[in-house]
Amino acid sequence: MSTKATPAVLLEKCSKWYGQVIGINDISLAIDGGVTGILGPNGAGKSTLFKLLMGRLKPSSGNVRLFGVDPWVSTSPYRRVGYVAETEKLYDWMTGHDFVSTLARLHGMTREEASERASHVLDFVGLGDVENKEIGKYSKGMRQRIKIAHALVHDPDLIILDEPLHGCDPIARTSIMSVIRDLGSQGKTVLVSSHILDEIERITEQIVILHNGRLLALGNLHAIRDLLDKHPHRILIRTENPRKLAEYFVTEDPVYGVRFAGEEALEVLTNDLSAAHNVLPRVIVDSGLKVTSIENPDDNLEALLRYLVGGAS
Amino acid sequence: MDKQGRGLAETVWTRLDRKAGAITELTIRQLRHRLSTWVVLAVGTLLLMSLLAMFIAGVRGGWEPIDNDGDSHDWDQDGYPAGQEFKYGSDPYDGFSFPGSGFFVQEGSFEWGSVGLYSGNHTWRYATGIFTYTWLDDSQIGGEEIIEVGSLKSCPEGELFEDFWIDWGDGCRMDVNRIAVHEASFVGNGTFRVQEGFYAEWGHFEDTFYVEPEPASNYIDEDDIDWTGDPNGINGFDDDGDCLRIGWPEDTEPDFWWGWDARHQPDRNGNGIPCDVAWISDSSGNIIQINPDDNVDEDPSEESLAYEDAHRAFIIGTGKIAFVMILGIFLPLFLSLGLVRDETENGTLHYLLSKPIHRGEFITYRILGYLIISGGFVLIMSLLMGLVTASLGPGDSIFRLNDMILWFGIAFATILALAAYGAIFNTLGLLSSRYGVYIALVIGVYEFVMAVLTLGGATLIPVLSVSHWTLQLIDSIVLIVWPNTIEMHLIATAFDLPSGIRAFWNPPVHTLGTDNPFISGLISVVVLLLITTMMILFGQAQFKRREIM
Questions:
Q1: Which helix (H) or strand (E) segment is A39 a member of?
Q2: Domains, chain A, with CATH or none
Q3: Residue A308: what pLDDT?
Q4: Is the CB of residue A151 less than 8 Å away from at least one CB of chain B?
């Protein structure tokens, strides 16, 4: 494992421009241990950050270090790194086991070692039963998992996953999330990027938020969420009789107002989202009304960013 | 790092070796899964198989003896082969002139440009006009200006040379007993009216006697090469006597200007010995020049020379054109251009480069993988060609082992070319994924042209090409495997024999003045390896600096 002196990931005043376009802008960051979510909308600089870490790109200014080594110059840190790229292309003609063991051999393993490790990681990501099927016949979720498997085959200390949940169905999503949580609990450093707050929330508390190439926030997601929760929020409840339900809500403390959004929907306005959610079940039971859905339209990354950007200005 | 419990025997090298193995294997498997690979290999196989089929058909068809000096042919169709006519001093191109035909005695002629008539039973020569006859000899056949009476066509309506025209030496029938002729000869009794502005003469042949026509086969392979193996001894023997001309009839020197006999020189090479062949060797005993006297050893038996020449020409020609110029250029165009480029474009490069492998190594192993596929194909094909030519080729031995060695030499040279082109095209694909293919096509055409120039014997301009050095390497290997090829080349030139070796093989030129094929071969190998290495290094330098999105 890495020592405290050399964190797994270190960026010092790092910037990357593509001509006039900014990829990331003056980011300093040190990450070591645990699962860290890299959050940001599309184009925030998540992939640029990862490509800098994987030596694909050369920083325009500043330094990038993986385990204390500049990845643009040396490939040696990759012995301890597993990278799940955003790319969707795979060698469709290969079987899953083939794919993972071939890439394992690039770590200097013998054929036997590689085959053994491949079977092991394929089991770990839940592809053990389809390892001899051609990748071309895999589902979207399986394809994402095979990409994770190849990144884990050499038992790396740092795992970087670029949008691993992108395009997966809910079942695949859940199983990939549990794989990522398992890795974190094994004491590895995991970086996982996403543009969906909810996904990251289910994986980790430790987050880095990127916006327009800048590091917007860094720290515990709940702490950031709490800040956000203290700001006006909407809860959208779909019910058969919104007017009647509104009567029950207006008397509640965290609620400062209600609004009717169409025939069968009620918007509850609050300044304390968690408190509002605490009273929500009781109020609905008391009302005896049938509720078809409850949504938090403001509880997403865009709202969080809006809040953070707004707060900064 | 020793998590997999690797033994102490493990070194950096064994791990490097495993990475190399993995990338190379991946490359091979990728190429195997591409349709274009199979298409180009299938086309290559088809090409070589059709060449092999031609070769086998040639062997099965056997070898017709070749009349190298052309004297077995009866040019004027008077029934006597040219060789026999030379011997008797008659004109081999004149159907009236043949052994025993005697001499034409001219009795009269129309003056040029005059108009007139003449009657009688004569031999009419160089006649242009209209002949009205009571008898026409239809036994004369062919010859350049003898009209074939039996097969004369009817003349078109109108006046000769006004309304219609007749070919030189030809005629046409105007009526049952009337013909029109143009510069033609015939025998007949009647009245000739000369065409205004033309000519005719008449007369008869004297001193005719009968000579038995010899079979044409007497004049095929009648004068073999008599080489004692000692340049200082007397070499060359006039087997058919057409140089020494002992016992030939007197006064056989014909007066026609095109007869080669008129310029016959029994000691053309000026060594004081008539009718011999001077074989000139250098200080180390290698034949460097061959100077024959006229008509000596001019029609050698095909058994000894032409079969071997044709056989070698097939191997060298196939090796140079099919292997180097076609497979050597097309396989890399199809297989090597996308070695790294396609991975970059597909995004699959990310999987490979996230492993602890240097980009430079990656290029090298990719090229290695491509070389195993393309080189393996070339090797298998050369083995196949070798087995067939070595089994069916001329000579006493059951299996021509040297053929096999030469085929492996051709495969070796082709593989070096594949490596050089592979490195060049791969680098082009890296430099520009969009235009690389066009530049590669231009280079392919350029290399082909340089190869053609090299085949034609150019030694200076093609130096700036891969194909030149590859072809010279084959020339060198040919000379190493068959040292007497140079002698066959000289013989073919000296006796003006039709030779495939002359068409496909040139003595290697870049020998640093030593004429040693090992030196030229070595230089070629070094140049080819240098080009390959430089291009790989250039590609690596480009790739290392590249940012991959």
A1: strand A34-39
A2: 9-223 (3.40.50.300), 233-297 (3.30.70.920)
A3: 75
A4: yes
